[in-house]
Automatic annotation (TrEMBL):
GO terms for molecular function: cyclic-nucleotide phosphodiesterase activity; metal ion binding. Residues 25-220 form the Calcineurin-like phosphoesterase domain. This is 3',5'-cyclic AMP phosphodiesterase CpdA. Pfam families: Metallophos (PF00149). PANTHER family: CYCLIC NUCLEOTIDE PHOSPHODIESTERASE CBUA0032-RELATED, PHOSPHOHYDROLASE. It comes from the Bacteria. Keywords: Hydrolase, Iron, Metal-binding. Belongs to the cyclic nucleotide phosphodiesterase class-III family.
Length: 292
């Protein structure tokens, strides 16, 4: 399969040119659960306002990320107007962005609304693709399963990924996907099984150029050693699952603000994960000795 090229070259040297190093910055957003029918999510959460705050936060970062990865559950009930609003809002980002589906999403609607970006495959069921235009190669996976909320990497998707990773074994690579392929200890979410997780982990282990796997779905910041690399979960733009590690506790959520992963790649650092916290915490203060 030929490398899929997108119109990102105008962005690709932003960080490098501005700050004089060979590298890039990747930001991740996830689980936007956009609802544009005028109703709040679960009667409580303004998902449109939450996404607007995230977009403004990303555009104000300095240095500005080169790329934003939106890792699924983009719409809550997958109405086409949700995706149209989403596309218009993401278009106000001052950097490139790439989207993948989550369990709440509709592939056909996403394919239509984001068609002009040109990175989705022209045919086939799955919305997986590679992004080749940056110092770090990024591989998008489609882990959506049929008629259930848990994740899946079936033989067809595993074979596709194995072939893509085999193409460029020496290139630093980030894999992005919606469902984390591991249990987290948040009991009610762990009940959603990820089919193919063991085969996926074995595959990743065979391709050590994978610097990191980034996922969503869990609505919290979580990380784990996985397949010889690091796998992480991103918080939601809209709402977070309550942190409760008792195995049999039912589901609940909280309105903690989102925390945005900021992945820095530089020749002299490798891939380093930072996090940017949404919220107003006042001005910066000079880091001085305590006066008293
Ligand atoms: Fe979600
Ligand atoms: Fe999800």
């Amino acid at each position: 399969m030929p490398a899929r090229r997108v119109c990102a070259f105008v962005f690709s040297s932003f960080t490098m040119a501005t700050y004089g190093y060979n590298g890039m910055i990747i930001a991740q957003i996830s689980d936007l659960h956009l609802r544009t029918d005028g109703h709040k999510l679960k009667g409580i959460v303004d998902s449109v306002g939450a996404l607007d705050a995230v977009v403004r936060h990303l555009n104000a970062l300095e240095p500005r990320p080169d790329v934003v990865l939106a890792t699924g559950d983009l719409a809550n009930k997958a109405h086409v107007q949700d995706y149209e609003t989403l596309e218009a809002m993401l278009r106000t980002l001052s950097m490139a962005f790439y989207v993948i589906p989550g369990n709440h999403d509709d592939r056909a609607m996403m394919r239509d609304v984001f068609a002009k970006d040109g990175y989705f495959p022209p045919d086939g069921k799955f919305l997986h693709y590679t992004v080749e235009d940056w110092p770090v190669r990024m591989i998008a996976l489609d882990t959506k399963a049929d008629r259930r909320d848990g994740g899946e990497m079936c033989p067809e998707r595993l074979a596709w990924l194995d072939a893509r990773l085999g193409e460029q074994p020496d290139r630093p690579t980030v894999v992005f996907m919606h469902h984390p392929p591991f249990k987290t200890g948040i009991g009610f979410m762990d009940k959603q099984h990820f089919d193919g997780a063991e085969d996926f982990e074995a595959l990743i282990r065979r391709h050590p150029q994978v610097e990191r796997i980034v996922a969503g779905h869990l609505h919290r910041t979580i990380s784990k050693r996985f397949g010889g690399t690091v796998a992480s979960v991103c918080s939601s733009s809209a709402f977070q699952m309550a942190l409760d590690l008792r195995p049999d506790v039912g589901s609940s959520f909280v309105k903690e603000p989102p925390t945005i992963p900021i992945l820095l790649w530089r020749d002299d650092t490798g891939l380093v994960a930072h996090h940017s916290q949404l919220g107003d915490f006042g001005p910066r203060h000079p880091f001085v000795r305590d006066p008293l």
